[in-house]
Amino acid sequence: MGYIDFQNSTDLSEKITQRLADENPVHRHPDSNIEQPLYVVKSHIQTDGMIKLMSVLKKSGLRFRTFDPRETSRLSLQEAYKEVCSSYGVIAYLVDPNRIGAIAHNSRCAFAAGMAMATGKFTLMLQENEIRQPIDYRDIVKSYSKASEIQDLTIPLVKSVVEKLQEKRFVATALPLKQLEKIDLGDLAAENEIGALRTYFVPTGQYNDAKRGHASLVVGRKGTGKTAIFYGVRSAYKPSKDHLVLDLKPEGHQLTKLREAVLKELSPGLRQHVLTAFWNYLLLMELSHKIIQEEERYAYRDRRLKSAYDEVVKAHGTEQLFEQADFSERLLFLVDSILERRKNISQISTTAHVTQLVYKEDIRPLSNSISDYLKLSGKEDVWVLFDNLDKGWPVTCATPEDILIVKCLLEANRKIQRQFEIRQVEYHGIVFIRNDIYQHLVIDPADRGKEIAVILDWNDPELFKEIILRRIVYSTQIDQPFDIIWPLFFETHIDGAESFSYILERTLMRPREILRFTRDSINTAVNRGHDKVLEADILQAENSYSHDLLCDMSFELQDVTPDYADVPYAFIGSNAFLSKEQVYSRLEDAKVSLDKRDHVIEILLWFAFLGISTASGEEIYSYQFQHDIKRMQNLKEHINYCIHPGFRRALECDSR
User: Fold this and answer.
1) What does DSSP say about strands 426-433 and 122-128: parallel, antiparallel, or unpaired?
2) Helix 535-560 crosses helix 511-527 at what angle (to 10 degrees)?
3) How far apart are the first and last CA of the chain?
4) What distance in Å separates the CA atoms of residue 41 and residue 39, rounded to the nearest whole number?
5) Is 175 helix (H, G, I), strand (E, B) or coil?
């Protein structure tokens, strides 16, 4: 029915009756998504079961979209409707009720699954452990106690979706869409729109540097487009006869067992040696795995190449479990193997001990066979892309072990690069990390200058205009410049300010946020039956956007500094501009100890929740300083603090 303004019960009754009689409903049933027919509601905690579910779906051959609460804090009603109704199947992963945040997450899963059942979709609710379920959906929940059981529970739904796709009974849109309704800004998460990104991806200078192999690090905050560049580079060098591309997305917590069971008992020098050896072994195993999986068709066309291919297969080994697993499972498998070998080594004090610990056997045949194959096959280059490594690591206070993990990965990349250069094969390794982790690498004199980084800081409004423009042109087929196309769909000014600038100033200058605010504005206008996004629509959308931004901030803090996750809520009802003493007072209300106040202010500055207000009235935020908080705080004009405009609506701040 959309959005209805009302003053009292009589008014509401009349407007509902009128809306029910309307032959043109606000919401049309979205077209079925044939390219990505599955929709998965992921858990907010990365459990073994969640890892296994993703592995099963990747191997199923069905492409899928996800809602990841670790990336986007809130699933809006419009988004849930669009994603569920356009799917053939919906999978909701429920966590054990004893886990933190389980009630909110499992309720969201129940809502999505209920909507899926109501619209006739194939539905699977996977439950971690045996739990007594509400009677509403008790009969459709499938429980598991071991992650290995998930494959058997998931396959029936996958088969049903495949059969449905083969029927090709696609329902056409019942009513023609208005131009405003045609605008599709894509998914907020790049991993959910890999195919569409090829059409409207904006190739920035940073992307071009990465694509040309001029950088070993891509640095940026969550939502700044690291993953889009990850997939952009991967698409530019898709696996072929000329290129070998390895895209790896480990997560920091998967190395926790290795860190706690092995590294903590070693000297700093040996820790670095063990970690570098581990990454070197993992990269070689993944490269050989890629060659075995994707190069067989080329090898059978050339007898000499087939011989080199067989050498790679022989050196790689034939661990069936390793071969059938996806990367996350293979990583855990290698870690568990090291822990098992550790039990048979009384003391680790020499290079020989490290070799015995990390490698099951001599890795030189593996290394040489890969190099020989790549040279003989005529490969122009090898690309290894690493993302997600620092997910969940604390901000501003990452541990030395965390930083060492990145340093050793970079060192292993350099080692393999040198080895391949001898065989005249170009090797490019790119690691995608956060700004604060990069700062630690820069601070260490031993590492300064070793790595070339591209920094993703979006300070140019023209780039954001291009991001929006390409998506509007792609979905509406109206090919006009931004200055013409924006006024077609949006009111040009809000409170005297240019409307696009108004929206942009309330974001943290990240592509994800400009897309979300703009999309919320369009949804609000569509809900109200408008043909154009009006000023009132944008102001209404600002409320939901601001609350989402605040929720996202809390979740980001929860991930990296759990003790301070609720600190932003202490600023409810405060002035938008505060002195240091007023900030201290709010932190005291949030139960922040006296000795931690300045540290918490630094965290809030880094996240751009707080900024600095100068004597001239200018507001300055961390993204304008590449998140260099020390340089930002040393400004001579530093007078007071200010709360970012994006949070002010949700916090009901007084902006005077």
Assistant:
1) unpaired
2) 140
3) 38
4) 7
5) coil
* Angle (nearest 5°) at CA 576 between 493 and 564: 120
Structure tokens at 152: 């058997």
Q: How far apart, in whole angstroms, are the C-alpha atoms of residue 253 and residue 469?
A: 38
Q: What is the pLDDT of residues 438-488, one digit of tens each?
A: 877 765 655 555 778 888 877 788 989 999 999 999 888 888 999 889 999
CB-based contacts of 564: which residues, under 8 Å, 6+ apart? 557, 590, 592, 600, 603
Looking at the DSSP assignment, which residues form a beta bridge with residue 94? 127
Estimate the share of the chain in helix, then strand, then coil, as percent rounded to the nearest 5.
55, 10, 35
Q: Please, which pLDDT band fits residue 60 given cuts at 50, 70 and 90?
A: confident
User: Do 503 and 518 meet the contact criterion of CB atoms below 8 Å apart?
Assistant: yes
> Which residues have C-beta within 8 Å of that of residue 590, sequence separation ≥ 6?
564, 566, 567, 569, 570
Cβ neighbour number for residue 257 with a 10 Å cutoff: 14
Measured between alpha carbons, how far is 303 from 290 in angstroms, rounded to an integer?
20
What single-letter DSSP state applies at residue 252?
G
**H/E segment holding residue 166:** helix 150-167
Which residues contact residue 269 at a Cβ distance below 8 angstroms, ignoring those fewer than 6 apart?
A: none
By CB neighbour count within 10 A (0-12 exposed, 13-18 middle, 19+ buried), where does 503 fall?
buried
Sequence-ordered alpha helix ranges (H) in 423-493: 435-443, 461-476, 482-489
Note whether 158 and 146 are within 8 A (CB).
no
pLDDT at 321 over 60: no
* Cα gap 517→528, rounded to integer Å: 17
CB distance 124 to 90 below 8 Å: yes
- What the block records as the tokens of 258 is 């290795």
The pLDDT-based confidence of 600 (bands split at 50, 70, 90) is very high
Could you tell me which of 128, 122, 213 has the C-alpha nearest to residue 164? Answer: 122
Structure tokens at 326: 């996806």
Cβ partners under 8 Å of residue 421, min gap 6: 427
- Dihedral sign (CA 478, 479, 480, 485): positive
